Amino acid sequence: MESFGIYENYIDEHLKSTKCLMRMMKYNGVDETEEGLGMEAHTDRNVLTIVCLNDVADGGLEVKTKDGSHWIEANPLKILHSSSLGEVLLNGRVQSAVHRVVRMGTETRYSSGLFSMPNTEDLISAPEEMVDPEYPRLFNPFDFEAYYKFTCEGSGRRDLSGLKTYCSLLK
Ligand SMILES: O=C(O)CCC(=O)C(=O)O
Ligand SMILES: [Fe+2]
């Protein structure tokens, strides 16, 4: 965030109000002839995600291009990507990556993901430094737990633009 000009105190403050969730995932290999979907297309709801994989020949993680026209393979060993809250905090300067896991090999794939997320009851919003005429405020301040709940239920569950649906100011 420092590279986006956000002052140091804010970063310290942010780190103090962040918790991390670590998740281990196992994807069984598939038959040579079939292409299995290991995890359907989604965006992560946290701030940043770091993923590490075992040494499978085919990483399988794919990220959708910004124009939505096709999927590109992501670096198979270590991936760090921005999630919904990164998009909010940087006021749209980065966008949350739509991604999925496809399985095309017989090997078992293991991954571990580190997901940083807010550990605060304060409303989440972009700092003033991120708002200017070129980047007018994009999102209403919101409560993370309520947003998370929205993405787990009903229409929010499969909504790849869930963040915009939930709190965009540009509807
Ligand atoms: O297993 C992976 O490579 C990615 C998993 C993922 O996207 C997630 O857990 O949100
Ligand atoms: Fe993900």
From TrEMBL:
Domain Fe2OG dioxygenase span(s) in chain numbering: 16-118
Domain of life: Eukaryota
A molecular-function term among this protein's GO annotations: dioxygenase activity
Identification of the protein by name: Probable 2-oxoglutarate-dependent dioxygenase AOP1.2
Stored InterPro entries: IPNS-like_FE2OG_OXY, IPNS-like_sf, Iron_ascorbate_oxido_reductase, Oxoglu/Fe-dep_dioxygenase_dom
UniProt keyword annotations, A-Z: Dioxygenase, Oxidoreductase
PROSITE patterns: FE2OG_OXY
SUPFAM superfamilies xref list: Clavaminate synthase-like
